[in-house]
Amino acid sequence: MGEKWVLMKTAQTPTNIAVIKYWGKRDETLILPVNDSISVTLDPAHLCTTTTVAVSPAFQQDRMWLNGKEMSLSGGRYQNCLREIRKRAREVEDKEKGIKIEKKDWEKLHLHIASYNNFPTAAGLASSAAGFACLVFALAKLMNVEEDESQLSAIARQGSGSACRSLFGGFVKWIMGKEEDGSDSLAVQLVDEKHWDDLFIIIAVVSSRQKETSSTSGMRESVETSLLLQHRAKEVVPKRTLKMEEAIKNRDFASFAKITCADSNQFHAVCLDTSPPIFYMNDTSHRIISHVEKWNRSEESPQVAYTFDAGPNAVLIAQNRKAAAQLLQRLLFSFPPKSDTDLDSYIIGDKTILKDAGLEGMKDVEALSPHPENGSAQKYPGDVNYFICTRPGKGPVVLSNENLALLDPETGLPK
Amino acid sequence: MGEKWVLMKTAQTPTNIAVIKYWGKRDETLILPVNDSISVTLDPAHLCTTTTVAVSPAFQQDRMWLNGKEMSLSGGRYQNCLREIRKRAREVEDKEKGIKIEKKDWEKLHLHIASYNNFPTAAGLASSAAGFACLVFALAKLMNVEEDESQLSAIARQGSGSACRSLFGGFVKWIMGKEEDGSDSLAVQLVDEKHWDDLFIIIAVVSSRQKETSSTSGMRESVETSLLLQHRAKEVVPKRTLKMEEAIKNRDFASFAKITCADSNQFHAVCLDTSPPIFYMNDTSHRIISHVEKWNRSEESPQVAYTFDAGPNAVLIAQNRKAAAQLLQRLLFSFPPKSDTDLDSYIIGDKTILKDAGLEGMKDVEALSPHPENGSAQKYPGDVNYFICTRPGKGPVVLSNENLALLDPETGLPK
Fold first, then answer.
1. What angle do CA A194, A198, A201 make, to 5 degrees?
2. Residues of chain A neighbouring B270 (CB-CB closer than 8 A)
3. pLDDT tens-digit profile of A374-384?
4. Pick from B209, B225, B283: which is nearest to A282 by CB?
């Protein structure tokens, strides 16, 4: 076999947002959690990672580029993922290109990896979840690995815990598992993205002046110091997970919203019970919660669920497009863009919802009236950076169109 | 006996701030808590309620004035206190004035009550605690009640739970009790105000745009919906209370600070775990916590403890005057007054600390440099309304100087 060939695979993997939260590891190295968690996968059209992985006898070392910038692969989390996936590599033959890689060759061959997020990395939108899931998925395809998505999820988990839930679309459960080696700590799909396709999701990317605690160190400190975390993990979450699975199976939005909100709040309660306390939500997050709570209580049944990860951004899950359009009206009344921002860059993702909400330009936003259930007509321009409109979405896919590859097929370097 | 006489007593009672928090009742009417709590009494020179109670055969009904404004006494909490204290009234004789009230007369005689807080009622500084304690204490003195302060505390408790802790100076424990009738749910003094007189207290009265949930309805909602509250009450607080008593006995500031901060944070964690979630702290509260945490960690041992009640105000307990002066420098650097506010109205209470901090005017405040442990040099003018400088203080006293009475000795009406 020639020394100049480059073999590549490109994959696209979604992010996910937990509705039953993962917070706390029982094993730091293997990334084994203290409780099960459940997530909804977000539509990769609006939030996803694309990763191209390449192998070539010409490569001198493993290298990686994230959003065009070279990054170190020396971290334990990358090394664990690379080691585990290489172990499972099998013979690969590309007759057209005249390439044949034997199983044993993979140990010596080096990899190039290029990854790109279609959303701002710094926005606190679980980029590491999509990133590690995509890395493992793309490598599995390149290396002809025969393990299924659940088995791959246990590898992605060793990169970033929540990454294991990005191997599937729809609603996904990360089973905490019991084994010391972590072999049974993996993700399974509860239902696919078609099961509950009424749901619509609006993410408020909230401005923050605070530097946030990373979730890795935050959850370590919670495990070490919170006197509530173990009670949550052992007594609260197991029952809540069962109820959540029921709610998802039955598309019972009232129950889904109640549990989603309660579990987000309890996760942040555990953060606050940590020493020193961790504050991920800020006054804007609190105001969004207050708006949603008041609206839900003013209706016969809840219209919107909220959930917050390790940052101030609100993920708002509306029971259908109509509720999402009404939600958007409420949000834009209280959190309009700053005067120099246009609606087109303030609402991104699936902008079709704007039409449903009767908001075709800034004039329509300015004409919005306060909503009766909300006691305050106060406006907070600039407190939200932008909104992303999206939906539950599908799992990882291979992109066969070579034009979408992030590495040059000749050099194996970023395009 | 003539029909024109008025007999009066005036008392002054301190506020208190809990260092082990009371949150959750097991009996709403008797106001019986789900856990013990511990507080420090604040110096009445800076924060207290003064109450004059008067009795006269000329009074047609029970009446009350708070800060000069007539208030209804029809609420169950007032009625419970009045009933319980009347039950214990005894014979009173004032030979000088030629007045004699028989035990049985008290049932028919009406009362006038005037109460005044030497601090803003709306500032969220436990005015109801001082108020009910003062009401019960002053009435007990007027009616020659023989019960001791602990027994009176069980009556004040029925007005406002935390009021029972304002019957003593120094550090006070509210024992939750076991009896269904609440007879053993009362306060005891752990140590008097001289036991640990190094402590210095700075209260940051924080600006808030939010209308806060009352503690009464907030704790009811927590009891009904938080899945963490019972765990806190049954598993966490009993151990923590014992450690806190030890820390106070030994004047062990490191342990005192650790438990005080952890318990404040856990109380707010339970509020967040409530449905709908309750947020008492805001971004300013979070910033103050972050400042204190960073400073404490940069020193060999903690310098300051923080605690927050049902609002955004920070109560900061410094281990001594020196630490308090350093704290004040740090606070004034980050939270200076707005440009139209002078230092004299921005720092109230025991202003002598300003000299210790080298801050004799706004020029000195403007000349402050950022402190090395605090990563940010950001300033937030206007985010704090003012600071109250004070210390642990004494319990209730009778004011024998008639000039200090709030009711006219002839008419029994507010002066």
1. 105
2. 269
3. 777 899 999 99
4. B283
